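User: Continuing from earlier, I have the next pair ready.

Assistant: Great, send them over.

User: Here they are, in order.

Assistant: Folding the first of the pair now:
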Amino acid sequence: MTNLFTINAPLYIRKANYISEVIAELFPHPDGLIYFELNWHFGQPEETIHIIHGELEGEGPWKIGGNVINMLGCQGCDSTLALQYQDWQHYLQTAADEYPPKELIEAIARKLSQ
């Protein structure tokens, strides 16, 4: 089984309400998973960081709690998501000093997992 949390490819989530978002950060949670939206650090955590409850199933695409997670660029992917990811990568390369360090991001995920 492919471990979702070790994949280096960009991912997106299609939520149960059929809205899709590119995933900026992804972590396991005791009750499912935690994902951070693009530009999460500019918003309010309760609006930009999400806990998805449920059992993770599949090997790509993955399913959890009525949501589907897939690799960006797979067949049927929305080109808008690909452009959002491209803009995100550009931001990370040009404004890396604005983005929180990995240690802080992991600490936030750990706190949410308690």
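And the other member of the pair:
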Amino acid sequence: MICLITYVVLRATIGPGRGASFIAYEIATGGDPFNFKELAAPHPILWVWILILHAVSWLMVPVLAATAVDAAYRRWEQRMDELDMEVQDEMTGILQRHVGIDGDQAEEIAQELWKKMSRKLAIKKRTR
């Protein structure tokens, strides 16, 4: 939204055909505002706005990237938790079907085995 407003103000201030869209894009993506000083210098408020947008874009882009990485990591963790539950359920089913252990006891044994395997896996990951 800020970029759109910047584009409209640039187009109105410097006129059509002077690259308002290119300037707005460059500034919003962290481009050097001093490349456009000649166009914006006669308009001090516009020049200050371009500098502010430049600074904000350098702050916003990393935050947006971090947000995307965090969301992907949370989805991955959720999927791993779902898979852990599936494995535990399968282990419980195997203990019930093939060993003949009743439901509650099979679930308890599966959870204990899963905890042991998880600890061993964590130790192996740390030693790499």
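Worth noting for the second one:
The chain has a mean pLDDT of 83. The two ends are 46 Å apart (CA to CA).
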